[in-house]
């Protein structure tokens, strides 16, 4: 699957219209239901293949953020052979009491993996906690960059965002007529 087919597949499988309140509190008339493309093995595999090219050299651990970043980080780990960690929104209060499960993050070059970036708010919170746990975090990869404010906030915090697609790229791909890619087989 080439990059244009992937963009069209993501758009066709996950683009919704209506009135949606985003995590940031913003209201949008369009929404990309990330779980629809993350649950599709064909799309998730193609996403991992393309997103692997965005991972900077020298990364030791891929840190998927709860909840949408976890399937992407898992697929990326399978594609790249880089170990994965799964980062909770807050450390659990029982058992291991860890913030990050899976691969060890202390002293490691960690790349944050997220599905959609709008404001970057949760990323900034998680990065602060990972750094406090001893992780070295400078890079973030995502499938969809929804709004440039997120990139700006991440850059202000010393983070580099590597996005597979911007929202504009997905919308452009979704507005191209192509009967062969009209959605058949994309959301089995």
Automatic annotation (TrEMBL):
5-phospho-alpha-D-ribose 1-diphosphate binds at residues 23, 88-89, 92, 114-122. The gene is pyrE. The keyword Chloroplast does not apply. NCBIfam families: pyrE (TIGR00336). This is Orotate phosphoribosyltransferase. Keywords: Glycosyltransferase, Magnesium, Pyrimidine biosynthesis, Transferase. The keyword Magnesium applies. It catalyses: orotidine 5'-phosphate + diphosphate = orotate + 5-phospho-alpha-D-ribose 1-diphosphate. It holds the Pfam family Pribosyltran. Its cofactor is Mg(2+). Orotate binds at residues 118, 146. Catalyzes the transfer of a ribosyl phosphate group from 5-phosphoribose 1-diphosphate to orotate, leading to the formation of orotidine monophosphate (OMP). It comes from the Bacteria. Its EC number is 2.4.2.10. It is an enzyme of class 2 (transferase). InterPro entries: OPRT, Or_phspho_trans_dom, PRTase-like, PRTase_dom. One of its GO terms (molecular function) is orotate phosphoribosyltransferase activity.
């Amino acid at each position: 699957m080439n990059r244009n087919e992937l963009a069209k597949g993501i758009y066709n499988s996950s683009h919704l219209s209506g009135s949606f309140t985003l995590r940031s509190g913003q209201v949008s008339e369009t929404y990309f239901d990330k779980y629809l493309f993350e649950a599709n093995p064909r799309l998730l595999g193609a996403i991992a293949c393309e997103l692997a090219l965005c991972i900077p050299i020298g990364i030791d651990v891929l840190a998927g953020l709860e909840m949408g970043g976890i399937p992407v980080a898992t697929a990326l780990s399978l594609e790249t052979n880089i170990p994965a960690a799964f980062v909770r929104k807050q450390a659990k209060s029982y058992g291991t009491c860890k913030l990050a499960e899976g691969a060890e993050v202390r002293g490691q070059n960690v790349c944050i993996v997220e599905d959609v970036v709008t404001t970057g708010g949760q990323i900034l919170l998680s990065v602060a906690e990972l750094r406090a746990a001893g992780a070295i975090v400078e890079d973030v990869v995502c499938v969809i960059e929804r709004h440039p404010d997120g990139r700006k906030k991440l850059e202000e915090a010393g983070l580099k965002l590597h996005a597979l697609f911007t929202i504009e790229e997905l919308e452009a791909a979704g507005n191209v007529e192509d009967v062969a890619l009209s959605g058949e087989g994309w959301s089995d």
